[in-house]
Structures are given as C-alpha cells and as structure tokens.
Amino acid sequence: MDNDIGFDRLKMIKKVRSKKCKVCGNAFKTNDSFRRWCSPECGVKLAQMALVKSQEKEKIKREKEERAKIKAVKERLKSRSERLKELQGVFNRFIRLRDKNLPCISCGRYHQGQWHAGHYRSVGACPELRFNEDNVHKQCSVCNNHKSGNVIEYRINLVAKIGVERVEFLERKDHLPLKLADDEIKTLIQVYKAKVRELQDAQ
C-alpha cells in the first residue's frame, strides 16, 4: 500500500518544465513532455498549422509526382531525331569539359569566346564517327564556323594529340554505318551524362 502511495506521489511531482508556446511564444509550465501550446486556443491554432503544413507537403508531393508523369510521357513520345539531338548535346558538353584546359584543336589559341565540340570528320561527311571521341575536340567558333573547321591545322594538332595511327583510322573509308536503336541512344545519353557529372565533380 505504501509503495502505491509513493508511486502516486511521484506521478504528482513529475517534473514541471517551463516551455515556450509554439504559437504565441509565451512561456508556460507543464509536466507533459509532448505539450507545445500554452492554452486551448493556441492548441487549436497549432493543430490547424500542422494540418496546413501537412496539406502543403502533400500538395508538393502530388505536384512532384505529376511532373514526373509528364516527363515520362514526354520521354516516351520523343522522336528518334529528338533523342539524337539530346545525345549530341550531352556528348558535345562532355567534349568541352574533357578539353576544358586545352586550346582550340585547330588554331591552338586560348581566348575568350564561344567554344564548340568540333568534328574532324564532319557529321555530314562521315556520320559513322558522329559520337567517336577521337573525332571530336574542343574548337573555337571561329575555326568551326568561319573556317570550315580549319581542317589542315586540325589534322596537324590532332596527330600531335592522339597519334597518327588513330587519325588514319578516322580517315578510313570503311567505317560501319552508325545504326543506333532507341534503347542504345537512351543508354548513350545516360553514359555521357555520367561522364559529364564525373568531370564536373573533378573540377
């Protein structure tokens, strides 16, 4: 019996702590470790605030899911040419990052201005080498756009960079046609996105 009385007394003298109301900011005392409001009014307001926060969180979740669905639909509806364009974009970005600290492959200059991923053998002349990393290098816009690739100087510097054997391989006439299936294009997009991230992280 005495033990029961002692236990009840302990419950009665449970630590009373001073807390700050989460709603009005006033100090209040309680022995309830979970209580965060000072009055019934503030308790109601706190519950309403929690409900609004929960609803907002759910709204953000729904919007995120909706965006993901729309993105997935757009991805499924992409044409082959759109996928190739996306691949070319991320591939070119990789080339520019790979050669970031190098000069223009043709004129050999470091300068301010726009930089391209310039093909040694153009996509029109040799589509088989469109995504061959040996065939594409950082090139200034002047050489690429206004000097038709500045091919003579390109070749001289390319031989110095990768060796004559690899250059002569690019110059062969018997390259197999590049016939990428949709799944292969998707895979290459992910491959070069990963390469871009790796280079960005290393910088």
Terminal-residue CA separation: 74 Å
- What is the number of beta strands? 4
Question: SSE order in H/E notation?
Answer: HEEHHEEHHHH
**Count of helical regions:** 7
Unreliable stretches, pLDDT < 50, 5 or more residues? none
Give the strand content.
5-15%
Mean pLDDT: 91
Strand arrangement in the largest pleated sheet: 1-2
Q: Rough shape?
A: elongated
How helical, in percent, are the residues?
55-70%
Biggest beta-sheet profile = 2 strands, antiparallel
Radius of gyration: 33 Å
Secondary-structure-derived class: mainly alpha
Provide a short characterization of the protein structure.
The chain is 56% helix and 9% strand. The chain is elongated.
Summary tags:
203 residues, mainly alpha, two-stranded antiparallel sheet, 56% helix
Could you characterize what this model shows?
Residues 46-90 form a coiled coil. This is NinG recombination protein. InterPro entries: Phage_lambda_NinG. Keywords: Coiled coil. It is a single chain. The protein has 203 residues and is mainly alpha-helical. The chain has a domain at 78-202. Helix content is 56%, strand content 9%. The protein has 7 helices and 4 strands, in the order αββααββαααα. The protein has a two-stranded antiparallel ribbon with strand order 1-2. Strands 3-4 form a two-stranded antiparallel ribbon. Helix 3 runs parallel beside helix 7 and helix 5 packs across helix 6 (164-170).
